[in-house]
């Protein structure tokens, strides 16, 4: 119900007037002020509820959007951190494998180097031994007096008081010595023994047998060569 002011500035009440229908329709019953007030309050309450519902819906939608955005951002950040962790683990694993491979490669290279060095040393020793044998053979052939020098060296280890003694040499050596007029050494006759190699000699007495073998002398010389090569490989 609305109120207006009259000239005396006092509020005046009025009621809504409804015009009769022009088409003979039944006239609606006149609405009382109480009904208007109830209708007005109902409209306000409905408007409040509608606004509240709309506000809640808008708030839920905004909250959902913000939550979704926040969740996506958190998910992206979490995924990025997990990717970084996995990348660091992969890098560490690759670095470890690379170090292991390098260590293994170094060990294999060292083994190969040592093996090659040993093989070269063996080949060098074999070459030295072959050359030494040829030199000895050539020296004994061209200079038979070398055999006599070997026999004299062996006799130096015999007691000078020895009364009985026999000297044995290789048949070829004896023949070459005989060609140059040598058939004895220090008064002892030279005898042949086919079991002796060129350059060998054997001395027999009543109490001992002494042999001077070319092979033994050669092997002692080769041992000194190997020792020299080993010393050259040692770190300074």
Automatic annotation (TrEMBL):
Name assigned to this protein: Flagellar assembly protein FliH
Function: Needed for flagellar regrowth and assembly.
Ranges where the Flagellar assembly protein FliH/Type III secretion system HrpE domain occurs: 96-220
Location in the cell: Cytoplasm
One Pfam family named in its UniProt record: FliH
Keywords: Bacterial flagellum biogenesis, Bacterial flagellum protein export, Cell projection, Cilium, Cytoplasm, Flagellum, Protein transport, Transport
Family from the record: Belongs to the FliH family.
InterPro entries in alphabetical order: Flag_FliH (IPR000563), Flagellar_FliH/T3SS_HrpE (IPR018035), T3SS_Stator/FliH (IPR051472)
Keyword Transport set for record: yes
Region named Disordered: 21-43
Organism encoding this protein: Oceanimonas baumannii
